Amino acid sequence: MTAQLTLALNLLLGIAGGIAVGGGVIALFIVLDMVPRLAQLTSSYDKVHWYEGAMVGGALLGTMSDFWNWRIAAGPLAELAVGLFDGVFVGMLAAALTEVLNVLPILAKRLHMTHLLFGLLMAMVCGKVAGSLFDWFVYQQ
Predict the structure, then answer these.
(1) Exposed/middle/buried for 8, CB within 10 Å: 0-12, 13-18, 19+?
(2) With left for phi above 0 and alpha for psi between -120 and 50, is residue 72 left, alpha or beta?
(3) What's 127's DSSP letter?
């Protein structure tokens, strides 16, 4: 009986945690207006449902592949394509967050670095790339 109770409790906690995290992610996407902004930039308001479906499907597929440790032997070109799509998603999320919060202009103004805004942006990008490469090549080994 204890094993069944433990399983039921794990299922309940897993579902509750998934709903909480999923609700938070969706709330973030709604606050950032990612889907309407993407439709506005691409002039494709009639494809909004496709964007939403792609986001939900990608999250579901990513979660399933993480839980069940899926491995695909597709070669370096497929890895390059997946990395490109991941980079586009993270870039869009970062751009939406920056656009909403206006972080960089406020930071540059407060630090009296408005003339160095491009350098500040490039330092942030290079730091993120260096950290990702370190994680990928050194830390994960």
Answers:
(1) exposed
(2) beta
(3) H
- Model confidence pLDDT, tens digit, residues 70-98: 887 888 898 899 889 888 888 877 777 76
pTM above 0.85, yes or no: no
Please provide the DSSP assignment of 60-92 as one string. HHHHHHHHTT------HHHHHHHHHHHHHHHHH
Instruction: Give residues with Cβ within 8 angstroms of 22, minimum separation 6.
Output: 59
Cα–Cα distance measured from residue 97 to residue 109, given in angstroms and rounded to the nearest whole number: 18
The CA distance from 30 to 37, in Å, is: 11
104 touches 121 (CB < 8 A): yes
